[in-house]
Amino acid sequence: MTRHSLVTVIVIVLTASLMACGGGGKKGLADVTYYELPDVTVPDGMDVPPQTDTDEERPQVLGCEIVPLFDADVPISLKAGESDWIRVKVIDHELNGAAPNVALYYQIDQITDLLGAPAQGDGQLGAEVAYTDESGVAKTTFAAGMAVDLIYTVSISADCGDPVTVQIVVSESPMGCIEVFLEYDGGLSEASLNTIKLHVLPGDYTCGLLSTTITDPAASLADKTITDLYGTAKFESIPAGNYYTVFATAKGPKFPGQEEACVVANGCREGVFVQPDKCQQLKPFTLYSAVMNPTGCYESVDKFDLSKVIEDCAGGDTTIVECATATGAVGQQICCVLNEIETFFTNPGETIVETIVDIAKQFLPTIIVDAVANIFKDAVAKIVTDLLFNAAPDFIKDFFTIGQDMVGIITHPELPSELCLSKLNSDYSIEGTHYYTGIILYWKIGCDPSAPDYDTCGQLIFDLDDLQNTQFPVSLVEGQFTASIWKFNQLLVDPHLIKLNYGKLILFVLNEVLIPTITGGQAHSMLEAAKLWINCKALADGVIGEVRGLIPGLDKSDVEDVCNETIDFLLGPVDLFLGSLTLDSNISIQGSGTMVDDPCDLKVNKIVNGVWTGQIQTSESAQSAVTGTWSATKK
Question: Is the entire prediction scored with pTM above 0.85?
Fold first, then answer.
């Protein structure tokens, strides 16, 4: 016999002895303690019962158990409109303790009337899934709804154990009502508010849990929609003796850039107590404007109109001779020449006739020249301009067309930037910065105005590296500003400065863009470019020659000389002048734009219809008016 067989015999004998003792009384199994016994040699020939594995005979409890923290044998009783928590605890039998972070699944399995027949109800679970905390407890709410005399059977299950069920009985309670009278406190027109939705919620839904983006709360006990601000809403048959929260949202007009009208205002009142057989009046119930959030960075483009700058810098209306004899600052003299270049390209007849008149005064009595000029100057200037634009050879018309395009490029730059707006402050103010990234110019020669891509045709984009790698580097400096939100979707930008070296911008356009392009590389100055197109001898014999007979003593050679002198004087000093052209300037602008909330989530994704107004101040001139437009798209 083995030693293990002897151990088994001893255990059987001890067990039998213990079971034989005890006399009368309740029967039960005695607790048996197993000890580790020393090795024993069993004599040969001794019979021992076969060995059994006692570990396999012991019952093992695995997984978890869901324990309701209420008397599950007694249904939970709720009145209509009430809500309550359903709390359970999960025990992990392997750990012999609480089971944290276990997912519990809640489901309404059945709705019946008090007799057990199937029925329809409006009771709702607060959540269908809840996780246990560190103590193994999980909970969700059940809102009874307004339908009464119903029994709800709710199951609670987990992946690790058997489900449990609970019954909830919803019975009738005394009723009252809530009547809502609306008013609006905000920047939009009262008449623009529409589709106003009102909801009555259980009292544990506080206003802090609700926002404008929640347009249909899931726990709503009752809801109504009225068309405009002037309507009222009355909620009948609200269970009395309870506190409620009333929540409302209102849509506004469809703003530019939106596919549909969005919610623009909301209101909330909590702690509304309903008494039996009485109507609680909320008068007034105020709707406040929602707040759009523009925080973030945008791709922005500013389009400026600087057409008044050159004229104002020059000191007003001038002539070429006045520019030559001006005694003002160098900057003003340069502006004077640029002003005459602009006039020459936009109204060449005026420039040529005025120059002829001014030069004629050098060898004829001024009183005679002025007398004749007052009679014919404006009329002849108009005729000459018309002839040059419409009847002259193509090469002359092309020259003036290109010149006008040049003026447009100089006076209408576009500045792309990264526009960043900081976090919105409690007073609806915000800080922003333009980080300028380059400049956009347009060369429209050869573009078809009727083409669908005309707006972008001829677009020339230069980044900061392009602007620095030139003979006259152009510097763009960021502009910082403050802004505020007004009338729900209007962004008002306060006055702020942008530094732009306007003179170097002009040089960049002339030397790096226009002259090389229009001459095919044949000219590298305005004077060289002009003489490629204008033949003063031919013009003296033709269009301009018609003027010479109007001034006594002025023959054809004089007209030709005047033509050459006009071209030489007008464009000859330009290189010299532009070589020292700095015109450091500050642009002070303020503006506004319309914020667009396209997905109706109160987060701005575009800013459209932007407008700039302000002044540009050069180092040696008075202020000039600046206008512009802008738009921005969220990155």
Answer: no
